């Protein structure tokens, strides 16, 4: 009579133990993954700030060049001097109008 009871208790213990063991293994893997990700965050954060600085610098240089080009065009720089305006006097080979 005691053998079936011991076998049943052993079976229940194995079922509960395997459930607890698999949960523990899953939690342990999750903790290890968390620790690995946590160690990479400072490096990734540093890289992100470097990329932000590079992009900001490029945008700043482009904006300054654009502002300079607009100011240069607004000031009339680069335009050829205005052509000479003809005078209302008649030339020598032209006949006077009546």
Description:
The chain has about 100 residues and is mainly alpha-helical. The protein has 1 helix and no strands. It is rod-shaped. The protein starts with a helix and ends in a 24-residue tail after the last helix. The mean pLDDT is about 85.
Element layout with pairings:
Layout: H1 2-74
Proportion of residues in helical segments: over 70%
Structure annotation, total helices: 1
Major β-sheet annotation: none
* Distance between the first and last residues' Cα: 147 Å
Can you describe this structure in just a few lines?
74% of the residues lie in helices and 0% in strands. The chain has one helix at 2-74.
Features:
about 100 residues; mainly alpha
């Amino acid at each position: 009579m005691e053998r079936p009871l011991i076998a049943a208790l052993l079976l229940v213990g194995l079922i509960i133990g395997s459930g607890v063991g698999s949960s523990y293994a899953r939690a342990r893997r999750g903790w290890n993954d968390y620790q690995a990700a946590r160690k990479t965050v400072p490096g990734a954060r540093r890289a992100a700030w470097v990329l932000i600085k590079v992009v900001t610098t490029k945008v700043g240089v482009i904006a300054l060049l654009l502002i300079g080009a607009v100011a240069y065009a607004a000031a009339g720089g680069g335009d050829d001097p205005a052509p000479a305006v003809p005078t209302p006097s008649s030339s020598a080979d032209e006949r006077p109008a009546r």
